[in-house]
Amino acid sequence: MATLLGLDIGSNSIGSAWIDTEKRLIKLGISVFPAGVEEYEDKRGAPKNQARRSQRQQRHSIERRAKLKRRLRQYLTKKGWIPTEKTDLQKWQNLNPWLLRKDALHRELTEYELGRILLHFAQRRGAWWFDEEPEERENGKKRKKDPAEIPGTVEYTKKIMKQKGAETFGELIAIEYEARKTVTANNKKRSDRVRNRANAFGEKVTEFVADRHMILAEFLKIWEAQKNFDGKLAVRLTDEVRKEIYNPKKTDTWRCQGVLFSQRKAYWDTGTLGRCDLEPTDEKCPKADMYAQEFLVLTSVNNIRITPPMEESRKLDDNERKKVIDAVRRQKTASEGTIRRALGIDKGANKTLYTLNTDGDKFTVNGDWFYSQIVCGVFGLIKIVGLG
Fold first, then answer.
1. Which partner from 5, 107, 284, 330 sits 20 to 30 angstroms from 140, CA to CA?
2. Cα–Cα nearest to 158, from 109, 93, 217, 234
3. Cα 202 to the chain's mean position, in Å?
4. How many angstroms separate the first and last alpha carbons of the chain?
5. Where residue 218 falls among pLDDT bands split at 50, 70, 90?
6. For 33, which DSSP code?
7. Coil, strand or helix at 315
8. Residue closest to 295 by CA, chosen among 279, 314, 306, 313
9. 167-189: per-residue pLDDT in tens?
């Protein structure tokens, strides 16, 4: 008996067909695997484990911060910079750290006051960088805004610091804290929140932010200012103690070290990338790699189909293909408008007469992040060579 097996393997299903050539019988089968995303009528939703993964990342972040503060508290207690008596500890916790960070630049602190500042640094030590590029819409089109004009950005915070004459981020918050005090009916001064305050709609609004570089600069300024007072505290502020708190020495694992500002390097284990589908003996190329970016651009451009008026759908010819590749590679993200402008069919009657298969949620046009941001951003636009 001669039997043939045919398989149709897809991303969400596998179809099979058993064929008996002697009895001329065919037995069909299909196995459907549920998609790993939330399904909606009009679009594909987010992965089902996205919310769980986000919550897990938040738990890890809270756990790491708690561990950092616990380790710092033990260090400060060993140094004698945290009170041990319950009454003194309560008074110490009630100290306003923002005002102390401002006073630290102009007067000598006590050991307890410096310990309060260091613990406050651990709570808000800033991120290493902010990648968000603020945008606004004008006449229905997106337009990049100047970050210095938008509250909640580092550039805006630095601009206000310069206007207020504040040397550090902590001094700026202290100045705003004092300026926004209001008097209640009982003649008691109440301070309005400066960071994460609520607007008229009850939503939390972040007005001032600081990155890690600003916090590190403030720490070093406070450290040097206190050493220059030549008081009781200055004697204990040695270089060895500073390295215990913040040591800029880099290693293969650590970006910097210290009980307060230690930070691991951000890295990706290339061993988790898996094997290449085309060359199983090699590892997969990271998506951010220059060759991977070029490959994604060529793949998406090769899949473009254009339908001229009164003609059948076809691939792009060599001249059209080069124009589209040149336009797409110069952008971080590409759209159908990018392709239409490159082909000259984005205006007038051509906008409706010519159709592209890029119109839809399922088709994505890959931009070249590496070429647009690194090559063009550093060296300017150069002629693309070798893209046949």
1. 330
2. 217
3. 26
4. 51
5. very high
6. P
7. strand
8. 279
9. 999 999 999 888 887 766 565 65
